[in-house]
Amino acid sequence: MNLLVVGRGPVAQVLAASARRSTEVVLATRDDVPGVIDLDVARHGREPRPSRRTTLPTLPLAEASARSWDVVLTTAPVDAAALTSLLAASPGAALASVTQVPSEADALAQAAAGRPWGLVAPGFLAQGREAVRWWQPGGLGVGLAGEAADALRLALDPQRLRLRDVPAFAPLHAAVVPMAAVAVLEAHGWHRGRAAADARRVVAVVQEAGQALAVAYGGRPARAAAPVVSAVLRLLHRVTPFDVDAYARDHFGRHGAQTRTLLADWVRLGECFDRPARTTAALLAELCVADERRAAAV
């Protein structure tokens, strides 16, 4: 079994480090030449569990496209054309993606072209670049959705990651509550107290996005209650084993474009299926205005 993981961020490193011993793992990156990265991946906890793998080979995307793979797992946005090119030499490969963005899931389905494909919901938070530390809250596991789940189970270690089967588009629904909260948190300058006071807006976005996704993809809409959202935002630092404020600013701050794509997808789906997402659209506009102000100030 050989596994190509597209990306080299913390989520990619955790998944690659958690593959079965028998799985050959390679990272596809945007580097110009093949290489090797040193792995320092461990779970948060009193006694961190380091990965069994200490190094991983890397390949430029162009060279990875020339090899045959059993499973291709993307952890970074890749458009349908690039995915098709990446799979050119792998007619039997299963295709999966760590994404909760509807347009990216649609691109994945288009690129699959009859192959087994699916979505992955990580169920963990990972931080760091050189030294990656990850935390999987109790009860959660890595959700595998779609036909690619069987191939992923053969490639990944089920004990290390707590693999579990989830409905086809469950990862899209799983993003709604946390990402609605992240978007409102960003709108308040990453200040959790102010975001907690604005919990009703989080709930409004959750309702709009949940309804649009349920109509577009099926499944049960996500739900949230303002008192619970407010309490979680205020108390989150007490349950996470790392600096959650620094994590939010660093991780979601660097991936702001993807947050905006996600919000735009929710708005688009609402328009397509007559489920107006006015609160979500207003939040997206607010974030875009803030982007323009920051750009003008540089």
Can you describe this structure?
The protein has 298 residues and is an alpha/beta fold. It folds into two domains: 2-169, 3-Layer(aba) Sandwich (Rossmann fold); 175-297. 49% of the residues lie in helices and 17% in strands. It has helices at 10-17, 61-64, 80-86, 102-112, 149-155, 158-161, 170-174, 176-187, 192-197, 199-217, 226-239, 244-254, 256-272, 278-297; strands at residues 2-6, 24-29, 35-38, 41-43, 55-60, 71-74, 94-97, 117-121, 125-127, 132-135, 142-146, 163-165. A nine-stranded mixed beta sheet has the order 3-5-2-1-6-7-8-11-12, with helices on both faces. Strands 4-10-9 form a three-stranded mixed beta sheet, with helices on one face. Helix 3 links the parallel strand 6 and strand 7 (94-97). The radius of gyration is 19 Å and the shape is globular. The mean pLDDT is 92.
